[in-house]
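Following up on my earlier message about zinc ion. Here are the inputs again, as you asked, copied directly from the submission form:
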Amino acid sequence: MVLAKEIRCMECEGVYPANAIIFECEKCDGPLDLVYDYHKIQDLILEEHFIRDEINHWKYWPFYPIKHLHKIVTLHEGGTPLLDSRQKKKWKFKYEAVNPTGSFKDRGTTIEISKAMELGVQQVLCASTGNMGASVAAYAARAGIKATIYLPDFVGENKCKQMLAYGAEIKKIKGSYQEVVRLTQQMNMQKGLYLTGDYPYRGEGEKSVGFEILDQLHFRTPDYIVCPAGNATLLSGVFKACREFKKVGLIEELPKLIAVQAEGCNPLVRAWQNKTKIREIKNPETIASAINCGKPVDGIKALLALKQTKGDAVAVTDKEMIVAMKELGKEGLYVEPSGAASYAGAKKLELKGEVVCVLTGHGLKEEKSFT
Ligand SMILES: [Zn+2]
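Thanks, got it. Here's what our run produced:
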C-alpha cells in the first residue's frame, strides 16, 4: 500500500504523479518533495503497538513510497543506538556507523533499491563520495542487480574495496564530486539507466534517522538535532521526519536543526550566513571526503529547514573534526572525520540543552590515521 499522493516541487508547487521517475522539477529545476495522505497514516499509527514497537527503519513504513512490503530489499538497516554522552551533560549521539554498510546511507538505499525493483530495473548508476556507493553496491547485490558507481578520485581505497567486495563496477573520474554527478546525470538522460543518489526516494528513506531519534526520546522534541551536511539530504530528511511526526500529532514542536560543513567545502554555510543563494564551491578541500560536495543537491531544502526551525549552520576546520573524532573515541565511538563533524559543530556553537549529534559514518571506512 502506498500512501504517497504526489510529488510536489518545493519552488513552483508543480505537481507530478507519486510514481514518476524524475529528479528535479521539469518546469523550474526546483527540488521535489513526496507528499502523503497524512490522515490515512494517522489512522495506521494511532494503533497502540506503534508506540510500543522497538525502533527500526521499517517501523515507519507508512511514511515511505513503497508498494509491496513483502518485496523490500533490506539488510536490516536502522535501529541504531541513541547514546548519552559521557562528557557532555544532556548531549546524545545517534550512532549511524552500525548500519549494515557502516553509514546512514543504508536507510535511503533500502528505499531506493526497493523502488528500483518495483519498477523492474536491472542496473543502477550512482555518483558517490564513497559511502553512498558502498551502500548502493551492497543493496544492488542483495537485489541481484548490477551497480556501477562513479567516484571522484579523492575517494579512499577502503571505500573502493568495500564496493568491489559487493561486486559493483567502479569508475574513478578525475575531477570534483560535482563533475561526477553531472556525468551520471547525462548518462541517465542518454541511456535511460536508473540513477540512484541524493534524489527524492533516497531522502524519503533518510527520514528514518529523525523518526528514530524522536521515538527513542519517547516523542519528546530535543532542543537541537545536529547533522553533517554534504548534499544535505540527511538534514532535509530529518527536517521532513520532524514535520511529518508533527503533522500526525506524535510531537508538538520542531527541534532546531543545525547543519555542519567543512570549512574547505561550505556552500550552505556561506549562503545561510550571507543570506544569498547557494553558490558552487569549485575546488572544495577537506579530509571529510563524505561531505566534500561543492553544490549540495538538497541545499534549498536544507536552507528551508534551518529557517523554519530557527536553526543554524556552521563550518568546522579539519583540525576541529580530528579533535572531535578523538573525543568520540573516548566515548567508545569510532567515526570517520565527516561523522565527527556534527559533534565538532555543536561544540563550536556551544549549544545548550538537549543536543543530538548524528554520527554518520564508521571510522573503519577511513584509511588515513589522524592520531
Ligand atoms: Zn518547480
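One observation from looking it over: The longest helix spans residues 200-216. Hope that helps, and feel free to reply on this thread.
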